[in-house]
Design a protein that fits this description.
disordered N terminus, 3-stranded parallel β-sheet, 97 residues, alpha/beta
Length: 97
């Protein structure tokens, strides 16, 4: 249980936030002309704590997160309660989507 407490208290580092920004910048440049992802559906695999998904939603995308760790899902739900999250281990051969 100590791992759950550590993750629930998770605070993103400046390095992580810079990485999130670079991912979102790349995706908006790649899949939109003006940074608007309205009407785009994204399935984010291995969502960690939902930072990238939350930023993509700000750009208009509809995002579904897939995360295998329950403690990370708890963080996502606490930080972004309206974000859709599927609990699934992506190492399993059968995906539910």
């Amino acid at each position: 249980m100590s791992g759950v407490k550590m993750t629930i208290g998770y605070q993103p580092t400046e390095q992580h936030l810079a990485w999130v920004k670079s991912r979102v910048d790349y995706l908006t440049q790649r899949f939109s002309h003006d940074g608007d992802l309205q009407g785009t559906t994204v399935l984010e695999l291995g969502s960690f704590t939902g930072d990238v998904a939350a930023e993509l939603i700000k750009h208009g995308a509809k995002v579904t997160c897939v995360e295998g760790k329950l403690d990370n899902i708890a963080v996502i739900k606490r930080r972004f309660p309206n974000l859709e999250v599927i609990h699934h281990d992506l190492d399993k051969p059968e995906w539910p989507f």
